TrEMBL record:
This is Serine aminopeptidase S33 domain-containing protein. SUPFAM superfamilies: alpha/beta-Hydrolases. The chain crosses the membrane at residues 382-402. Signal peptide: none annotated.
Length: 403
């Protein structure tokens, strides 16, 4: 099952133009290789590169006189160098980069069957034939080209940057929504992108249900989420799998990205924080500042005046601060006094309240005492009255008995 699925994935991945869109010829006068039917250009070299598999691939190298970066471009699954020729020329001009493109094994006039060996041969040529350093190389992978691009990028820790154009998560995931990686899958980009340590730009048609019916937008989105050093992605609305380079936003965003990564890491981070703190674009004019030393010598006596002025300013600032400090202390003292008075007033009111309460209680007790005294007098009067009545009755009864 694994071999069958891998074979299906490989058949999906590779659709080389048949017949090839170009022929490889040798100029009789110069001995140079040429791509027919394209005219010879002074800044374009056509090469045949040996791979570690013992095969040969065809590549083209475009020089730009102002370049500080080199783009190693791995094209899509249904194109060859003849179809990419004009685009490569335009990218080199607009982005101001050297550019190397190559045909995979089995494409154009390249032989063999191993795309990993193909991109390694192109990278080796940049290093050995053109003296290109790893930190000056930007790997660019379009569609199926994202496979060899990420495989190489995961093994080169000092790359300048990576661009993924309509990339795939893996060959199998384009056909089936599998949740894990199988050993027989091809181009396991989902597992390799976390190993890339340089800035990564991802370009893809945006949103679900777009006209990119080959590779869904979710592939680009998930790869971007897995990047270690993310760069603002370019999601192009309405684009399909093979026409994103025709949108104006494509070249603008790509130029901005390359301009950013061409700065050193420290420059990139400082420019993100504040463009006022660092101006790398002034390097060319900074060279001319050296010739101003004589003028600087004449301006040295002004340093003492400037220093005195600074000291004076600092002194006035110190006086102002001292005044503010004294005012603050005075305000704190007034606040403490106000709080003390308020506390005394609250205490006095509390005492008055207790005094009033005490007087009220004494008054009530006095009234109660007087009431008790009145009751005692009434009770004594009643007792005397009853005693008098008893005595009078007793006397009357005695008289009655006697008589």
């Amino acid at each position: 099952m694994g071999g069958v699925t891998s074979s299906m994935a490989a058949k999906f991945a590779f659709f080389p133009p048949n017949p090839p869109s170009y022929k490889l010829i040798t100029d009789e006068m110069t001995g140079l290789l040429l791509l027919s039917p394209f005219p010879h250009r002074e800044n374009v070299e056509i090469l045949k590169l040996p791979t570690r598999k013992g095969t040969e691939i065809v590549a083209m190298y475009i020089r730009h006189p102002m370049a500080t970066s080199t783009l190693l471009y791995s094209h899509g699954n249904a194109a060859d160098l003849g179809q990419m020729y004009e685009l490569f020329i335009e990218l080199s001009i607009h982005l101001r980069v050297n550019l190397m493109g190559y045909d995979y094994s089995g494409y154009g006039q390249s032989s063999g069957k191993n795309t990993y060996a193909d991109i390694e041969a192109a990278y080796k040529c940049l290093e050995e034939s053109y003296g290109t350093k790893q930190e000056d190389i930007i790997l660019y992978g379009q569609s199926v080209g994202s496979g060899p691009t990420l495989d190489l990028a995961a093994r080169l820790p000092q790359l300048r940057a990576v661009v993924l154009h309509s990339p795939i998560l893996s060959g199998l995931r384009v056909m089936y929504p599998v949740k894990r990686t199988y050993w027989f899958d091809i181009y396991k980009n989902i597992d390799k992108i976390p190993l890339v340590h340089c800035p990564v730009l991802i370009i893809h048609s945006s949103g679900r249900g777009t006209s990119d019916e080959v590779v869904d937008w979710s592939h680009g989105k998930q790869l971007w989420e897995l990047c270690k050093e993310k760069y603002e992605p370019l999601w192009l609305k309405g684009g399909n799998h093979c026409d994103l380079e025709h949108y104006p936003e494509y070249i603008r965003h790509l130029k901005k990205f390359i301009s950013t990564v061409e700065k050193s890491p420290s420059q990139r981070y400082s420019s993100r924080k504040s463009t006022d703190q660092y101006e790398p674009s002034r390097k060319s004019t900074d060279v001319y500042e050296v010739s101003r030393k004589s003028t600087d010598r004449r301006e040295k006596p002004r340093h003492s005046t400037d220093r005195a002025e600074k000291l004076k300013t600092q002194g006035s600032h110190t006086d102002k601060l001292e005044k503010l400090r004294l005012q603050s202390n005075h305000a704190e003292k007034l606040e403490k006094l106000r709080m003390s008075f308020e506390q005394m007033e609250r205490s006095r009111r509390s005492v008055d309240c207790h005094e009033k309460s005490r007087k009220s209680i004494d008054h009530q007790l006095e009234r109660a005492r007087k009431s008790v005294d009145r009751l005692d007098r009434i009770r004594t009067g009643m007792y005397n009255f009853m005693l008098g009545l008893f005595f009078f009755g007793y006397c009357s009864f005695g008289i009655f008995v006697l008589y």
